[in-house]
Amino acid sequence: MYWQKRLDKPSKDKEIEAKILEIRKENPNYGYRRITAMLRRLGLSINKKKVQRLVQKLKIQVKNFSRKTRKYSSYKGTVGKITDNKIKRNFKVEKAYTQITTDTTEFKYCEKDKSGNYQIKKLYLNPYLDMYNSEILSYEISKQPTLEPILKALDRAIKITNKSKEERIFHSDQGWAYQIKQYTSKLESNGIIQSMSRKGNCLDNSPMENFFGILKQEVYYGNKFYSYEHLKQTIEDFIRYYNEERIKEKSRIFIASRISVSYTHLTLPTNREV
User: Would you identify the CATH topology of the domain 99-249?
Assistant: First the structure.
């Protein structure tokens, strides 16, 4: 009966809440998205909005997010070739491997020196993101903002996108590495069109900025890292989760929306036709 189902619902939520608390205890920095992924791995079919509501009810939201550090900038002026913005904020892409974007972001960690004192060190992430589904196709992590890791990740991104027979655009900001011959020649030799954001306009590269924001909110802001290896492993684990869990979720939403649209075009028979 209806009233009995209503009485059974709270007990079911209690079971879910218990699992949420258990996951949070083992993973203090997990937000509701990653908790949802963990619940699904346990066999629960649950919507992330419900998990968000239960997390808020339990008052265990991750609140230690902050943006106190200045954003890393690789812009050094005009040191090579500057190209136009071919994307023009058109981030809705119909096919995979056709619009790729990249950027470099900076993280900080602490490391003991020979005297036993902690010194602030830096780590740099160079990912290549497919605008079609926000998947990270390739990336490199390094201790210095040098050209080598950017080119290594670029080579892998080119190799992956070679599967596409469509025109390819690789987008970036006007950072020094994306202007020089070693970078631009790789794009040209593979028939890839280069695109750049306008100077000082981060919104021209919103998909990558969005990824960096999610990454840092989920695993970085409010946490302290005492080794390069620990921070590197944390980032790698998140990218694996991001590609495997979040991309699947986006795909399910996309498929559901396509099915919904297709049903709206169906013409139902009238009573006379029946």
Answer: Nucleotidyltransferase; domain 5 (3.30.420)
